Amino acid sequence: MTGGVGGVPGSLAQYAAVDAALLARKPANLSMRDAAALPLIFITAWEGLVDRARTQAGQNVLVHGGAGGIGHVAVQLARSIGANVFATGSARSLPFIEQLGATPIDYDKHSVEQYVAAHTGGRGFDVVYDTVGGATLDSSFNAVRRFGHVVSALGWGTHALAPLSFRAGTYSGVFTLLPLLTGEGRAHHGEIMAEATRLAEAGKLRPRLDPRRFTLSNVAEAHAAIEDRSAQGKIVVDVE
Known about the structure:
Blueprint: H1 32-52, E1 60-64, H2 69-81, E2 84-89, H3 94-99, E3 103-106, H4 112-120, E4 125-130, H5 135-143, E5 144-152, H6 162-166, E6 170-173, H7 178-182, H8 186-201, E7 214-215, H9 219-227, E8 237-238
Parallel strand pairs: 1-2, 1-4, 2-3, 4-5, 5-6, 7-8
Helix pairs in contact: 1-2, 1-8
């Protein structure tokens, strides 16, 4: 994740000059395609669960959108910390969420009150990571326990904070692009990616890739797959 936004050159090229502070060694057990899919989603997951929420072993963690790009990595990261992980998703995504080792929750079938009661005895979750935004962030404020923490990678709307305040809970937003755009904290991104390498080589982290193959000759189709939400996993472009 070294460019492509805010006037910083992107990566649709065979070679790129980048700030070395943003880089880490590729995991030896992952392909180049797998490794290419990791930076954005892992940094976002790490900043939310580790840097902001300070997730600890034994805590109950809820990930909204557990089969999504950020979500499926957040599930793996939380499990590597030793947390008890729960994740919401659509009916078709539940088997994948279960494969990741999280307890799946069908958001179409169960209300916030129902799954909070079923999985936490009504107390709420210690940490809630919202990767969906909108109404899901509002639901997060109702799903967190007293003195718990909600973090969101998509907290861009207008939300009522009363449910969170009544629980004496805290909230953090994640804007992963900030170090790239401002130069502040770039070295930390390199440190986070070194952690991704460590977890991947320990067999605790693997990204889900969309099965389609894209190259520079059909890169417009890759962008279209993101825009029309047809991607089943991360989109990777082969640059040769």
